[in-house]
């Protein structure tokens, strides 16, 4: 029988448990870099394997891995995909503030109600995207510059707040917002979403790190695995184009719907 590692910051994981979490972080990084939704893989694995810890430690530690992966993905996209930095950076800043607020209120809001709201939203997102096969195939922003920026700031604030509460599907919601409302192509939307997602993870960590909720040893090891997966995912997305990203997006949305639906059914 494998014994616990007993290393500081690893929550007494076994070696097998650590390797499993690294594999989950790698896969989560790849999926998240393409369309978001990597938390569907990484966070549940941590909740199952971290022995005797509170949920908040899993949430906080997962942000260390996530911010490393999203940063690597954003850098990879920036090299291969044109990006509107003058719009992406303000959206990221607003999302950071929203995420910080969401993290601070994580324990005060009824998660059961939020899960139902997000489940309904994901179903609508999935059906809408499936019924519009040309959605996101061409990068053609349809609004004047000021209105486009206003929509991006609104999306950053709302979705950033949700990510601070550790809600699932943040990256997928960002991609859908940019594709459906701003009329970005899927690849451009994914690239922009990664920049914003870096900010949402950072905003949450501004709360979690001073609160002492991060398991640094585990977080840094999982971050390395997440980076490797993120670079792979971003390279695939940028190379294969919007049609590939759309297929992965729909797959991830279905997975999120099943996961959230199962969680709500069990809690009920």
Number of domains: 1
- Largest beta-sheet characterization: none
Terminal Cα span: 36 Å
Q: Write down the overall geometry.
A: globular
Low-confidence stretches: none
Number of beta strands: 0
Indicate the radius of gyration in whole angstroms.
18 Å
Instruction: Give the mean pLDDT.
Output: 79
Order of helices and strands: HHHHHHHHHH
Helix-residue proportion: over 70%
Share in β-strands: under 5%
User: Helix/strand/pairing class, anyone?
Assistant: mainly alpha
Protein name: Probable membrane transporter protein
Subcellular location: Cell membrane
GO cellular component, one term: plasma membrane
Family: Belongs to the 4-toluene sulfonate uptake permease (TSUP) (TC 2.A.102) family.
Can you walk me through this structure?
There is one protein chain. The protein is mainly α. It has one domain (15-266). It has helices spanning 15-35, 39-49, 55-80, 85-104, 111-131, 145-164, 170-180, 186-208, 216-240, 242-267. The protein is globular, with a radius of gyration of 18 Å. The N and C termini lie far apart (36 Å).
Q: Any descriptors?
A:
mainly alpha; cell membrane; single chain; 10 helices; 268 residues; 0% strand; membrane
């Amino acid at each position: 029988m494998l014994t616990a590692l007993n290393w500081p910051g690893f929550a007494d994981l076994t070696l097998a448990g650590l390797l499993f979490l690294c594999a989950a972080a790698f896969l989560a990084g790849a999926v998240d870099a393409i369309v978001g939704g990597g938390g569907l893989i990484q966070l549940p694995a941590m909740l199952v394997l971290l022995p005797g810890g509170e949920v908040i430690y899993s949430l906080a530690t997962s942000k260390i891995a996530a911010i490393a992966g999203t940063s690597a993905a954003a850098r990879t996209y920036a090299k291969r995909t044109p990006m509107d930095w003058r719009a992406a950076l303000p959206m990221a800043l607003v999302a950071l503030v929203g995420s910080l607020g969401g993290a601070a209120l994580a324990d005060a809001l009824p998660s059961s109600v939020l899960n139902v709201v997000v489940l309904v939203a994901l179903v609508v997102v999935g059906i809408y995207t499936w019924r519009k096969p040309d959605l996101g195939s061409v990068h053609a922003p349809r609004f004047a510059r000021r209105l486009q920026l206003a929509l991006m700031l609104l999306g950053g604030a709302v979705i950033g707040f949700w990510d601070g509460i550790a809600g699932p599907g943040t990256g997928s919601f960002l991609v859908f917002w940019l594709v459906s409302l701003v009329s970005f192509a899927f690849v451009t939307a994914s690239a922009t979403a990664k920049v914003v997602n870096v900010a949402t993870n950072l905003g949450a960590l501004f709360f979690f790190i001073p609160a002492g909720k991060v398991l640094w040893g585990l977080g840094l090891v999982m971050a390395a695995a997440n980076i490797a997966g993120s670079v792979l995912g971003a390279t695939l997305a940028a190379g294969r184009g919007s049609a590939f990203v759309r297929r992965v997006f729909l797959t991830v949305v279905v997975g999120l719907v099943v996961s959230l639906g199962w969680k709500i059914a069990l809690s009920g």
